[in-house]
Specification:
Mean pLDDT: 82
Number of strands: 36
Low-confidence stretches: 1-28, 647-662
Strand order of the largest sheet: 3-2-1-4-5-6
Protein name: Matrilin 4
Largest sheet: 6 strands, mixed
Structural class: alpha/beta
Pfam families: cEGF, FXa_inhibition, Matrilin_ccoil, VWA
Oligomer: single chain
Number of helices: 17
Strand content: 15-25%
Distance between the termini: 107 Å
CATH superfamily of one domain: von Willebrand factor, type A domain
Keywords: Coiled coil, Disulfide bond, EGF-like domain, Glycoprotein, Repeat, Secreted, Signal
Subcellular location: Secreted
InterPro entries: cEGF, ECM_Assembly_Org, EGF, EGF-like_Ca-bd_dom, EGF-type_Asp/Asn_hydroxyl_site, Growth_fac_rcpt_cys_sf, Matrilin_CC_sf, Matrilin_CC_trimer
């Protein structure tokens, strides 16, 4: 298959008028339109009645009678279709009119559906092939005759056939659909689409088709409508456009080719269009180069019109001046001045800015300071911290220099570097009752064997009471009842009265429990017996259940923590827990009763009323008889308080609280040594604080 000549248009309807004015070609006067490969595609669906099919058969024969049929002129093939496609004979089957007509007369209708799209694809892929007699460079023409709407898609396959150069005439009869006919036919539709009311009128298209191929000069004999040029061809004509124009889709009018708008130019700046041609120009401030395409800026600077101090920059219709790096353009727009960032304060040096040239600076520091790695900030030179001094005890630093001093209890010698110890015991009123012991810059008091240094750190006395951390767990369950709970609080206060309560002595914490646990006050909240007793009387009764195991867990994990005031284990302050309950626990007590004793807590168990003896014994420390108390009546608990001894001096303690005897000689010496060491540490810290204060004073003076 080959493309037809460009824009071939068959104006068959126009030929109707011309046909009436001239004789048609008779049997002895054959039309010679030139070589042509013609395929009839005829609809033989069941809707085409027998007499209508005969009319269609006669329609084809009438057209062929007017054409010169032969291997070198017009070749004819017929394809019949309904629900299937059948080639009746191909382009190479018959070589003369008689055999073609005989082949047409032998066609038997298929009488099925209307698969027009299938037939067009067969025509395109099979009928118009070299194997079936199609010739190269010979126009392909197809005449489709149908009486109904296609049962398949025709638009896509018809478009593909037209793209391959097949010129399609669509002839519809009776029930044919105009939309489908236009989808199949070539352009323009008025020359390629025909719709007749009945098969009896189909011969009219036959007459028009004959005239279309009989060699008229249609450009001269009719109003062709071409805007520029009409070119005649056998049975047709086509329109052409003058140079610089392109033919529009209507095949008649022309549009100027705008190469500028289409981007088909190589102008650098401005493209000026004319039909099919263009010329180049430049924007204002530029001139066109000799190549007629590129532009260059008008060089005002090179013309010697500038008076710039440093650089001249061309611009449209003029120029402007710029300065070298590190310089600033002045108000006249021409001269330049070096930028001094130090003088303008546009730097980030902490102390000294040194100008090194236009817009360049470096930083430096005052005497006694050193420049940091950021090359901006300064750090005082601390000779003391760097160890670059020969002070014996205290070095006091100032930027780049230092002075020496001595710790408390020492005096600076004449060399201003070394120190001499001052005998504090002989030089001050130390107030020690028994003996004063010197330490560097300080002193401490000691007592004779068998006596203990009292809280004032000076007087001596006998051992009266041990210092302990005591936590009381009191049962606030519903079974206790409000009036008995008041008796429990009095019991707690009786215990407190028997203790030496102070911040450095015995500390007391209180926890109430029922179905939950509540810390009433921790060990570090109150430091006098009066404050503790007042807080106890304000405790509110909780009621509900008896979760003794939960209370033991809380005591172990929270109450005896340093956060709540328990003193560090290293200080060997005994920890004592006292549980007061009136009934059976509703949870397991074994685990945390055991863990409390394993943690070194001496446990006392006090039971009243329905308290379970086995539980009390499990809570109490060994020997159980000295740590377990029980009474049937709340009114008798005051007697227990009188007999309960929680202090840990050996002669008074009834429990197995294992602590060192503070009155023993070896323990007394150890205590005195520990006290002396602690005083020494405090003295050193005080000296360091004094040194720091002197340093801060010196820094303030240096800033002034």
């Amino acid at each position: 298959m080959r493309p037809l000549r460009a824009s071939r248009v068959f104006v068959l309807l126009g030929l109707v008028v011309l046909t009436a004015a001239r004789p048609r070609a008779g049997p002895d006067q054959k039309c010679k339109p030139g070589p042509l490969d013609l395929i009839f595609l005829i609809d033989s669906s069941r809707s085409v009645r027998p007499h209508e099919f005969e009319t269609m058969r006669k329609f084809m024969i009438d057209i062929l009678n007017s054409l010169e049929i032969g291997p070198d002129s017009t070749r004819v093939g017929v394809v019949q279709y309904s629900s299937q496609v059948r080639s009746e004979f191909s382009l190479k089957t018959h070589g003369d009119l008689e055999s073609v007509v005989a082949g047409i007369r032998q066609i038997v209708p298929l009488a099925q559906g209307t698969m027009t799209g299938l037939a067009i694809r067969y025509m395109m892929n099979e009928a118009f092939t070299a194997e079936q007699g199609d010739r190269p460079k010979v126009p392909n023409v197809a005449v489709i005759v149908t009486d109904g709407r296609p049962q398949d898609r025709v638009a896509e396959v018809a478009a593909e056939a037209r793209e391959r150069g097949i010129e399609i005439f669509a002839v519809g009869v009776a029930r044919a659909d105009m939309t489908s006919l236009r989808a199949m036919a070539s352009l323009p539709f008025e020359d390629h689409v025909f719709l007749e009311e009945s098969f009896d009128l189909i011969h009219q298209f036959g007459l028009q088709f004959q005239d279309a191929f009989c060699g008229l000069d249609l450009c001269k004999e009719m109003d062709h409508g071409c805007e520029h040029v009409c070119e005649n061809s056998p049975g047709s004509f086509h329109c052409l456009c003058s140079e610089g124009y392109t033919l529009n889709e209507d095949g008649k009018t022309c549009t100027a080719i705008d190469l500028c708008a289409e981007g088909k130019h190589d102008c650098e700046q401005v493209c000026i269009s004319s039909p099919g041609n263009f010329s180049c120009d430049c924007r204002e401030g530029y001139r066109l180069q000799d190549d007629g395409r590129t532009c260059s800026m008008v060089e005002f600077c090179s013309f010697g019109n500038d008076s710039c101090d440093h650089h001249c920059v061309n611009m449209l219709n003029g120029f402007y001046c710029t300065c070298k790096e590190g310089h600033r353009l002045q108000a006249d727009g021409k001269t330049c001045q070096a930028i001094d960032l130090c003088a303008e304060g546009k730097h980030d040096c902490q102390q000294v800015c040194m100008n090194m040239g236009p817009a360049v600076f470096t930083c430096d520091c005052n005497e006694g300071y050193t420049l940091n790695e950021d090359e901006r900030s300064c750090t005082p030179i601390d000779l003391c911290a760097e160890g670059k001094h020969d002070c014996e005890q205290v070095c006091i630093s100032a930027p780049g220099v230092f002075t020496c001093d001595c710790r408390k209890g020492f005096r600076l010698n004449h060399d201003k570097k070394t120190c001499t110890n001052m005998e504090m015991c002989s030089s001050v009123q130390h107030g020690c009752e028994h003996q004063c012991v010197n330490t560097p810059g300080s002193y401490y008091c000691v007592c004779p064997e068998g006596q203990l240094l009292q809280d004032d750190g000076k007087s001596c006395g006998a051992c009266t009471s041990a210092n302990i951390d005591l936590v009381l767990l009191i049962d606030g369950s519903k079974s206790v009842r409000p009036q008995n709970f008041e008796l429990v609080k009095k019991f707690v206060n009786q215990v407190v009265d028997s203790l030496d309560v102070s911040a450095h002595g015995t500390r007391v914490g209180l926890v109430q429990y029922s179905s939950r646990v509540r810390t009433e006050f921790p060990l570090n909240m109150y430091h006098t017996a009066e404050d503790i007793k007042a807080a106890v009387m304000k405790v509110e009764y909780m009621e509900k259940g008896t979760m003794t195991g939960l209370a033991l867990k809380h005591m172990l994990e929270n109450s005896f923590s340093e956060a709540e005031g328990a003193r560090p284990a290293a200080r060997s302050v005994p920890r004592v827990g006292l549980v007061f309950t009136d009934g059976r626990s509703q949870d397991d007590i074994s685990e945390y009763a055991k863990k409390a004793k394993e943690a070194g807590i001496t446990m006392y168990a006090v039971g009243v009323g329905k308290a379970v003896e086995d539980e009390l014994r499990e809570i109490a420390s060994e020997p159980v008889e000295k740590h377990f108390y029980y009474t049937t009546d709340f009114n008798a608990i005051s007697t227990i308080a009188d007999n309960l001894k929680l202090n840990v001096c050996p002669e008074e303690s009834q429990g197995e609280v294992e602590v060192k005897d503070p009155c023993a000689c070896e323990n007394l010496v150890e205590f005195q040594q520990n006290t002396g060491s602690s005083l020494e540490q405090l003295t050193q810290k005080l000296a360091a604080m004094n040194t720091r204060l002197v340093e801060l004073e010196n820094q303030l003076l240096s800033r002034k």
